[in-house]
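pasting for ref. prot 1 ->
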Amino acid sequence: MKADVAPTTEKPKIPQPTLSQINSDRITQLANQYWSPQTKESHLPYDALIVESIYMAEILGSYFSVRRIMMLEFSQYLENYLWPHYEAGKASHAHMMSIIVMINEKFRERVPAWQAFLKKPDHFPAFFEQVLRASVADDHTSRNMREQTALLVFLNHCFGSMEVQLCRDQVKRLVSLSMWVSLQEGRRNQEFKAVPKWRKYWRAIQKKDKPELLEKLNWERHYLQRLMIKFMRILETIPETGDVNVETVRYCERFLELMIDLEALLPTRRFFNTVMDDCHLVVRCQLAPLVRSPEGQLFSQLLQMLKFYARFEINDETGDPMSDRDMTLMHYSRITSLQKAAFAKFPDLRLFALANVASVDTRESLHKHFGNLSDKALRAIATYLNLIPPEGKEDEAPWHRLDKIFLKELLISRHERRISQLEELNNMPLYPTEEVIWDENVVPTEIYSGENCLALPKLNLQFLTLHDYLLRNFNLFRLESTYEIRQDIEDAVYRLAPWRSEDGSVYFGGWARMAHSITSFAVVEVAKPNIGEKAPSRVRADVTVTLSVRNEIKQEWENLRKHDVCFLITVRPNQGIGTKYDYRKSMVDQAGIVYVRGCEVEGMLDASGRVIEEGPEPRPQLDGDSRTFRLLLDPNQYRLDLDRASKGNEDVYETFNIVMRRKPKENNFKAVLETIRELMNTECVVPDWLHDIVLGYGDPGQAHYTRMPNEIPTLDFNDTFLDMEHLRNSFTGYEIKINVNDPRKLVRPFKLTFENVLRKQELGDEAMDEDNEKKVIVVEPHVQPKRGPYLYNEPKKNNILFTPTQVEAIRSGMQPGLTLVVGPPGTGKTDVAVQIISNLYHNFPWQRTLVVTHSNQALNQLFEKVAELDVDERHLLRLGHGEEALQTDKDFSRYGRVNYVLAKRIELLDAVGKLQRTLDAGGDAGATCELAHHFHVYHVRPRWQAFLDKCQRELTVDTISKEFPFHEFFDDAPKPLFPGKSFGEDMEIATSCNRYIDHIFEELEEFRAFELLRSGLDRSKYLLVKEAKIIAMTCTHAALKRSELVQMGFKYDNILMEESAQILEIETFIPLLLQNPQDGRSRLKRWIMIGDHHQLPPVVKNMAFQKYCNMEQSLFTRMVRLGVPYVELDAQGRARPSICNLYRWRYRALGDLGHVLRLPEYRAANAGLRFDFQLVNVDDFNGAGETEPSPYFYQNLAEAEYVVAVFMYMRLVGWPAERISILTTYNGQKHLIRDVIDKRCADNPLIGRPHKVTTVDKYQGQQNDVALVSLVRTRAVGHVRDLRRLIVAASRARLGLYVFARANLFRNCFELQPTFNQLVERPLELELVPGERYPAQRGATANVPDALVLRIRDMPHMARYVYDMYLEIVRETARQHEQSRGSWSAPGTSSAARSKEPQHFVPSHPGAAPDSDDEDAAGPAAKATGVSGAPTAATATTSSSFQPTEIINEIEDPDQ
């Protein structure tokens, strides 16, 4: 079975050891002797020489081989041997380095790293000091650059883990104000003069220092300066040409990475930035020979990043962002102060001193002024500016460079004008070009091992400013889409197979659906630049292609819509006609890809050369195959290309020979990038209460509702509580006071007043000081006014018995502020979200709520539940293309809602007409909304008022019935309209009838605008901006349509986000800013985020962006890491308690809802299977375990066949197919299982296909009764080691979970042990209970005697058993059919009852494929009929010579 694999470039992979190699390896043998948890009883005593020996042989001796380090780390060397036996002061260098290497490996593998230290945290400070001393040492231990690099990487991990108390306590001392002791005295005084309060703190620190600790403290305070000095010394030893030590370059790169990360966080940069500036690190790096050497490409890119952050637009003292104007003023003050000094003290610079600032702040002009100065003059200026030590004090800082080249560069780089970051961003082309697409340092290939650093921004816990936040996300989003574009281009070019013909032209030997060769290309318009800009305002081009392809593909090209993005490619292949392309090798070299440019489609041209407009009219039919498209090119890129062409380079726009389109779903990157760029150009107004939390600063709990100044004391919980008992149980620890004496009136809806909130608002801060404040809730039931006399007027009510934590989540969501809800699997996240939306709708009818999710499927689930609640249909709106899949017969899209309003208007106007007729009021009130309004004011209201007046005069029951003016109108209401039992009751009915009539006129008043607005677009905009109260969209739609929504004047007050932990950071942030601020402030009042950070994160396809840049971290996860308070739902109602135990340990206190113990389906066993969950060990089959036909495309035939055989067995036992899902952790295995199903059972009516065959990642958010999970890997654990994937896999099943895997491999994995320890307690051979039928009569906890159990040895045993069982069922049903045929006589002729032979071959057993040898053996006698549920009737006879299909390895060997 071949997999369709996209071409990838070849790159070395980290070889992973096989299980047999692991078992026979020296490391495994040592682990078994000394630290393996499996051999705990027989461990030898600790031996320090073992640590030395392992370090020298396995780490240092193998040159830090990743494979050896992986094995050591996997064997739990750190947890069970290194750290438990680490002793401060006694531990050797090798012991310390071993710990460092293990921690770095954990970070590389992205598994929790700091847990091991929590067992002996007291030793960590001493260990950290040992690390620091080793990293700046200048003895024999510091010669090994690999070791020094590992130390830097470890340090960087410590600085990046500031949320871990252990790390924070150590690293914060290195970057506090006290580090300024390492500054030159003049520079320090200059800084204190600028910020006087720091001088005060400085003196306080000096007073506090204890004399006995002074030496140690001073060493710490000088540490980062020492590290920089050591780095500069090493850097300047690297020659520009000749042999360059790769390890030294790697060390320098890692050092710059550390510096960038320190500069990119406010807590670390605040004081460190000045020290780094004082060391002139950036200037020394710029002058280093490595920058000019070919090996220094990545170093130079990192240096640019460091330079950018060193001069970032932020005030280091306050942390406030600085605008372009602030930066310009700071730059001017720096130059003018130098001019004043030059005028007074340096006559050589008189011309410079008298020039205007703008003429002397470029590099060229500064070079002209400073270039001719003597060494002495340059030194005098630098000393005056406190940049270098004064004469006579050079010995205090002998590492300073004082040569002319350095001093000149120092002065120029300090005073040259910095290009505005925003200006640079606005001039940046949004489409990637060939220079970026194939730059490995910027867009690494998929196979990123994690060993090297990259010139990429990182997303960690904190950001400097909103600008920094948006910029990092902009760059990463752009590069992630570039990576996907690269894959598409390589795939398209590979399929087109361009060859070089004999005359030098390009000949295309293949074809591609998504790309086509260009017939002609011409730029047709270059519009003048806008004022103040350099690039043209618009560049149009026409591209012609000849579409001699199948009709459906031609239609796809013709259906290219406005704003679709295409790519223009130039290829110049070197390979002659007929040369075979190898997808494993670089496509750039093979096909000669020279240029790539992006463009946007404006439309297709008609025969007369005009763009065909999109609209309801049918498109004109064009003759022939030639089609011309009008394209919009990127003006910024066009300008750059023309500048290059004017310097003698080739004109790119005359060379294109391929045009490529992309799938619409993957092609929205440009719109998202434009949205982010637009946000950076506008004043981003994030609510004050949220601003610091988004950046990661301040008190993480400041936006919790209990800390908000506008906390609401009284809330109407509407139908949240089912009854009074439910309410009491929901607020344990509260005293409940009731305002009602009559117990019959204690029915929902309830209004709750929290007295402690009232007290807090009265007393202010004093209330906070009360130690044991009494928690009192005053409950007030209130009767909702009846809406009319009809049964359908009764409001829909919630019937879910919410748990106390769910109620707390609902309460928090109703209050202003930030609400985080962590919802473990099956805890009713969606129900909580729906109730919050409903309560907000009823409590604050004037507010509007925006509902955002990651996927259309989740949005539709949520929306369907909202639509079922007591929410007026006209207030619901669903934006985006996913509304087609809504499981309702109503259309909630924009145009669907417009149609609903128009239809509703006619229906209501008919009702008004009826009312008019019944009142004999004359006129035509039912014609328009305006006439209806007049009718209401002048006819309906006066009659109602007259009725009320009469009733007040005569308080008798008869008066109501006699005088009621609308009897005839309510003729179709339930009879009698007025029962006549009591005056109050009848009066309430009369009032509800009036409410019903008033509601008709209220709605018509709202619909009045639709009579004035004529176009569908205007009406839909009005609906979105004015009418809708609950608006739902996906995060992608929000990012794509932001500018459109803002221009419309879209407004909202609350945001609710479902699946928050699956949404990219930037896609979570954009929905906060879909509206313009009011008076410079955001009107956002609530932000509710619901998700689960213990399940899978957002999908990031490129491993480097996912791992190195941490792009997969969602904003939800970051907030949890920062310590933002959250509500964790604590009762699951999905899985059996035994299955839930497999992942229960991952959550705080996850319990079970009553129904998972009570309902029959949970109390019954799984039919045909002994256990409700089991780990089934799968050994090699035909000598093969996992295989890898192409990189990362893992397959395991034994597991695939085993899983399918168990599925077939369950179907034969009677399980419905839709109750079984087959999951796997790799795409390759998914394709293989689907192939096996197609071959074995898909077309067999007795068996069919399971509900889903998909990957664990894709199945997140879904569930089924039974999950059969294949873990695939047999050599290394692979990405299941990410606990989040294991949690998702284990939590998809309700009743049965069966995991097929290599047990010995997974049970030894430290991170997975809490789950796998439970799995391996049960037998590792699948245990069946033959003879049972679905549904089982056996209890889930009933003991099954061994005599009734069948143990399956291996996969062939299972396959054989299922085959025999299938034949037995077929024979039995055939026998029954023969008997029933003999005993039943059909009406009509006897031949009419005779069974006919099928017209096609039906396989006689599940192992037979339609084209197998069985066709001859079984012939036409084999037939089967059935339904997708349990097998019912089947007929078959089998030949005695029938043999089952032999199970063979169906994966092609890639080497053959």
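and prot 2 ->
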Amino acid sequence: MAGPTSPHLVIPLMLWGESSPSHCISAIQISHDHCTLVTGSHDGQLCVWVMDPNTYKATPKCLLVGHTASIVCLVAAKNTLEMECIVSSSENGEMCTWDLIDGQCIESVKLPQIHSHIQSYSFGGTEDASLFCIGNYPEILVIDPFTLEIIMNLTSRVHPDWMAAIHVLRPTRRQDDVVLGLTTSGVVKVWTVGAQDLNNLGEPVLEHESKQIRCLSATSMTCCLYNQRTVIIVSPKYWQIYDAGDFSLLCSMASRQGESWVGGDFLATDRVIVWNNAGTGFIYRLPTNCVVESKDFHNKSSEEDFPFLYCVLKLADEQKFPCPPSIRCSLVVKGDGRLVKLLLRGDANGRVSVFSIPEVTDNQLEQIQQLDFDNPPIMNPQSCSSLADAWDAIYPKPVGVLSHVDNNISVTASLYITTQNRLVCGRADGSIVLVNGLATLKSLLLQQSQNDLQNMLTLEGHTSRVTCLLYPYQLHTRYDPVQLVSGGADFTLCLWDISSGTLLQKFCVQVGEIAQLLVPPANSSPRILQCICSVAKDHSVSLISLKERKCVLLASRHLFPVTCIKWRPLDDFMMVACSDGTLYVWQMETGQLDRVVHGMSAEEILNACDESVSIVPSFQEGGLANPAVHFFRGLKHRNISAIRHAALRGLNQLQHASASGHHDSGDHAKDRGVPLTIQGLRSNASEKEFHAVFFDAEALVVQLLHEEYSLMSPNTLETHGLINQSEYQKVAALTHSASPDAQKKIAGILAKVRESAENMQHKIQSRSDAGASVRSSERGAEDDGLSNNENVRQRQIPHTLPNDWSLTMEIAQLLLSLLHGWTLDKDLDHACQNRLGLAKPKSPVCFGLISRSGHMMLMLPTWPAGEPVDHFTSFGHWAISSTLTTNHLLAIVALSNTLMSMNSAAFTDGKIIRQFPPREIARSSEDRKGEESSMVLDVQTKQGWSLMATLHCVLLPDKVQELQLLHNSSVLEVFRKAQIEMLARRWQDRCLEIREAAQALLLAELERVGVDGRKSLVDKWATFLPTYADPFTIIGSSLSVGSNAANLTGSGTQNLSIPSQQWGSDGSSPARPTGEYEAEEDHDDEDDGEDVALRRPNRSMELKRRQATSVVLLGVIGAEFGQDVGENKRTGEADPRKKKTVEGFGLGPNQNLARLTSKALTYLLLAPATPKLPLHTSLRRAAIDLIGRGFTVWEPHLDVSKVLLSMLELCCEGDKLIPSMSYGLPLSPAADSCRTSRHALTLIATARPAAFITTMAREVARYITLQQNAQALNVNLANTTLARAKPEILRVIELLIDKMQADISDLLVEVTDIVLHCVDHGHLKGRSLSEVFPSLCRFSQITHCSSSRRIAVGSRNGSLALYELRGQKCQYIQAHNAEITACAFSPDGKNLASYSSTENRLSFWQQSATGVFGLGAVQTRCVKTYTTDPVPQCVRPGSTIPLRMARLQWHSGKTVAIMLSDGSETRYHL
């Protein structure tokens, strides 16, 4: 019952229904403060209960879902009062560490060892615990509770055997710890463990002594904590007291007939409590020879002196259950010194009983002993709690998915058809109900929603309950979109037409109820492609052809239940694995049983089937090096030894190849998800289904933007600044060689750009029509190019939706209505209901949380009991979990910003009134009034979304805390603020809107915590910052979704990612590389459940994750709060860094933190692409972004040339129509890196224009030098970064000229060097510089002569730079002693005038060639000089920008005029 695995931001909520889920308790654990209780069930779920420490009444709070087998052990992961974390272990080897406060699965692993008992023990009395595990293996394993990694191994040198019981303690007056172990054969072993053993990782620790005692198959062993001298050992037939010194037997007590002892513990030195398998507790007083303080200790006991039973703990209404109860004894010393003794009992019906163990003094005991009674006194539990009782106390009852239809018939199977928004529910009476999915959810969850039963369709065909449903078209488009398949407990399989509601065919092939329906893989034979696979409980598997309407294959010779089906379609094999480990290999076309394989060979064949499918589709591609090939060749030729040989030789290598292959798949290729899916969940197969509703916030944002962009033409996209192809192509055209008809070529390029944009638009539109039906199995074709999807044969999908109806908008309406913090802001609530179209929830919503590998936390409607809706939406919602708060805030802010950016009105019953800019046509005054009113409404709508985003991004913590103080909320409810590290991990999320939401939330939270909070964050995370001198250990990093990229190939619109319409592929999510950066989410984690369960945890994985988080978080703090120079000047404090700057980032002598952070960021940027750190990952993007944001802080510690060239290298893909930063749809990883680098370059250039220009000019000079010696050095200059990134350099220069004119004017010569490097000189043959690059001609200091093909630039130091474009030479002349204000060539190009307003001098220059016939060097000499009038003060601007203060204008070949900005003109003659 694990949730769907997705790398997206997924928000689950539960529809529990009126009856509670079953909870057959198999393990129980309580916290030391008696406030938290955790129970594990035989179905694999954990239930967290909140307990009142005074009355011991327990209230179920949430379910933790993820285990696939019965829970055997529950143990606290830390030695603290609250039990913040717990470790669960199941009977199939799964172990999970859960954060009970946050609801997350921190770590999960599947070990080959299966534990039967785990003891948590803290070495040296610290909080950090270690887990001592025993089970059906001959060692004691010591496991770290947070990494679930084996840190120590206690083994036996004498009589190694399975351990039956252990106890760990630290004897008084000793510095080491002692482990007592008892084997199943009755050998007691003693290990002494010290600090040196913890440091010797991998070295087994051998026992120090051992002794055989008469105790077989013990179930528990506990040493008396009060004297550490006596030990109670419990076995099914006896419980015994031993002397811990020599393990001699002191006393023994046999069990009653038909019962067996299960466990026991000391209540005092002379009192013990023992319980049996019936759940009854017995309290005994020990005989005097078992009491250390007695003079008779260790003497032979007399016949009269035996354990005295003086109390029995038993339920009043004892019932027989199929599973024995789970019992735990808890002895806790309270703060007031009281020793509280509790006995906890969990039953198979989900009831938790708490017995308070009575305190009986010796005098009372003597009085009891004098009373001669047959049965000792019985004590009933102090409190009993159960899920069913808590459910009955709820009013109104929790809603189920069909509560509005008929609540008497339970739902046994369900399916949500995404493309049609239809929820299909199979019920216990055999009927199948089809309802509108969204309308159903809205009527169940929101106020002011009406029941929509008009479109309900009921299918009658089964005579017993429906067990499974399948809509084949949702899995692959080869099937008919009107066909639905259902299986029932009546052994039949029905084929339905859901457009008309008719039964097309009923198949009765198997003789057991249908358990599962599957679809064969896409590369099967044509006949099998039209089949579905049916698995029944009679152990048979059948292939039913939907086209031929008959059974193609009936595989019915299996002796045990079917557990797994794998395919080898190219060899026509279907593999059926059974529960006894047998593998049956069937030929699909002929229906013959090819062979039956047992044991290891069966496992190897199944594994090889997985590998061959994921690595190679055929033998030819894999070659003989692929072990999977040898498996199946051995299989075909019935050669089992060849199969074993291939396994030994290559499986390990193949797994490594598979992992590295997965690393190269990028964000783009991951499961894209659908905005909404409804999934049926159940605790076990016998009970009815509950329903989980999963909202994928990222897919919802992408789908909203996708629909928005599909309605825009290319020109509209350009107008809104979403794409900038034409502008970029104009710049790019200047960098290419120009022939005499360059104008035509440029026009042709721009025409092609427009045409490609239109093609892109048509493809987007066609995809929006077809995309809803394209399964994620087509994802490979989608990634190769959008046009490939046009080849998919389309069928008419049966739905009748009005044209103005948007499913995506209605999903957004429902999600925002549920997530919004109602009652926090009354005015905003009014606007949300009346203007934005949102509605309040009817009752508190049972949200959930998806964490590692699909493990889920699901809130129960029982906690807190009776909470009003207003209190839940304003406070209770934000007190559940910090991870849940983070995910919900991200979703709200991202969706609000998305809707604010869209040209649409708010939600109105699913209808959207779109507001587009009015067309320029003749309109009547009434039309204009209507347009004006609609524009006003549109502005109000955008303001509403803006206010909603602001409330949840900035104001929420303060508003909630105000409300908490106002209403005096309970101590149990604490506002769980957003997790800063989670937001840092999403700093460069692949979805732009979620990325911007995470950045806004993180910056708001950093601003809110103030300088002290930021300092504590820096102190916490600086310890994880990797030092640049050491090998950098961040590997395979991904900020939120594991973006391991494939390089972008092709051009045009392939960078634009269009979302698929399905939740994900059929259980195949790319494996995460070791140490990858998770989104705890994420989720948000993108591992496939089985892959992670089999994954062995790496000890350094968490460290590497924290290193990556540290780099990003410190980068954000340094970039955004590193230097507040402006504020420092205003405050005028003695120490300017005290205001906001964190120590270590400031301008003072301590810049160590800035240096280390900048080195780490630079490494991430410059590190070459490796399988562990691919070229395009979100961590590398984050480093690029943070270098750009905080360039002023990092600059002293950076090699600016390397940084700029690396970013330009990433920008070289820019000619492939990369959209702007406001384009919301996800891009391919290469395109995203390009866009981020382009943005970072812009930030760097605008923050430090001088550094950018001087660095680029220096690199251009190096390039020119290299160009002159290219032949000698044998260098291909076309592949260098400076040659490929010319368009990007020109774009940045143009931006700087537009925005930073004062800085550019100081470096005009360097700017000209860069521009002339980037612009092809052929463009300047017949056109002036003002036509080719008009931005540069804004400066009066630059002049160009087309006839002589020369450019002159006046610099700030008074020198003139003369560029000879023909010879590609540059000559410098010291023309003036002060800054040159303007210069201009004469019309014939023979003379040049230069003017300096500071020096008040005008000079004329003439070029002449020396030598015979003028073939020598060209010399420039001054032919005349004038002293000019000073420039009037009124003309001089406040700054020293000489832009248009004065310019030179030639009126003839001999006359030049100085024209001032006030319009005055002075002429001078040559």
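The two ends are 93 Å apart (CA to CA).
DSSP finds 37 helices and 62 strands in the chain.
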